[in-house]
Amino acid sequence: MINKRIQISRRSFLRTCAVTAAATGLPAWFIERDLASAQPAPKPVAANDRPGIALVGCGGMGRGDASNASRFGNIIAVCDVDDNHADEAVKQFSKNGKTPAKFSDFRKLLERRDVQIIINATPDHWHTLVNLAAARAGKDVYGEKPLTLTIDEGKHVVAAVRKHKIVLQTGTQQRSDKRFHLAAELVRNGRLGKLQQITVWLPAGLREGPFSTSSVPAGLDWDFWLGQAPRVDYVKERCHTTFRYWYDYSGGTMTDWGAHHNDIARWAVGLSGPVSVEGKVLAQPIPGGYTAFSEYEVNFTYANGVIQTATTTRADTIFGTIADKNGQRNGIKFEGSEGWIWVSRAAIEASNDELLRTPLPENAERLYTSDDHMGNFIDCVRSRKAPVAEAEVGHRSATMCHLGVIALRLGGKLHWNPLEEKLTGERAREANARVSREMRKPYDYSFIA
């Protein structure tokens, strides 16, 4: 009877592997290994263990993150400087007669003892102050990417996470995607022979304008929304979804999509960052319009000689959906002496199917396995272990993107010391001035003191 049960269980396991492999295009050996080695989530400390979760930044991405997190905990508070967004979040997460508390100042929200977890989905220029304040309050954080607005901010965040011993997961969810995991692990283990070139295609950004000022919408605290950024009159296109295409608040698709694809490329290489970066602008902004570059090419060189090119494509929309079905889609291509591997959110392919189908040896280097990015974060909140995209990971990958933006704005080639985290060489002084930005008072580090 026992042997029969084992046989049935094994048969069921193999059937699950085969179905998953067929659905994803992943090799069966990888699926089987992944399922066999999966670790169960830590047991709750109590039968009704559902942590209190607060959402800061109630736009579409934030509400999506909070909905994902609500599988594991209760959304008990929401916060946004746009009262309309906060009301939408309250409506979405009200259930069973319970309504989340609403805040307009995240500092007040952090005073609540029943909040254990913060979902930080604010615009990029607010990520750091919210994350730092949460760390000081002892709250664990799921923070949207890129982790920071500048390289210097990342150093502050990493130090705070370590000092206050919180768990922080950066929202670079491709680290929890099997396709990207397999590609990175194969490359890391030399499946392509000597790795030579990585090409990252990112959706091109928006190139529009000029825009007109208008009255601040009712319910929006425009000064608070601007935060550390320069004071300017309200322009509809500066706020909410399209903030990403203004240098004051973000870095365009280099820091948006680049935070995902450059992160996976760096994971595959296995180094903390490049040693040089060179940028070329392919389309200048329209005067009076978006200020982040929409089309560009950036070349990174690693200490091991690998060259990584990040370039834009018009075949995808800013959301990664198809704009030109015959054009180059966003994704990553790894090229080595023995062939190539292409990976995106939709597919993984290789110059020779055997590059994917041949199992790695038992002694191969294994990368951190996570099949559920939010689930991995919650597991780590309970176990106090580091998640797959912990603060240092988020900081180093964001640094690559920030270096790309700096190179585009300065032009020419810049040299980077990843150990000391500073730009070096003839243009060091000029370049290092871009590692941080002046923060408008009162929205500097004293704002959360």
Brief summary:
The protein is of the alpha/beta class and 449 residues long.
Word description of this protein:
This protein is an alpha/beta fold. The protein contains 15 helices and 15 strands. It has helices spanning 2-24, 28-37, 60-69, 83-93, 106-109, 124-136, 151-164, 178-188, 222-226, 253-256, 258-269, 354-357, 373-383, 391-410, 428-432; strands at 52-56, 74-79, 101-103, 117-120, 140-143, 168-170, 195-203, 276-283, 295-301, 307-313, 331-336, 339-343, 348-350, 412-417, 422-424. The strands form two sheets. Strands 13-12-11-7-10-9-8-14-15 form a nine-stranded mixed sheet. Helix 7 runs antiparallel to helix 14 (391-410). The longest helix has 23 residues, at 2-24.
Quaternary form: single chain
Number of helices: 15
Mean pLDDT: 94
Q: What is the helix content?
A: 25-40%
**Alpha carbon gap, first and last residue:** 65 Å
Secondary-structure class: alpha/beta
Give the uncertain stretches in residue-range form: none
Widest beta sheet: strand line-up: 13-12-11-7-10-9-8-14-15
Strand content: 15-25%
Keywords:
single chain, alpha/beta, globular, 449 residues, 15 helices
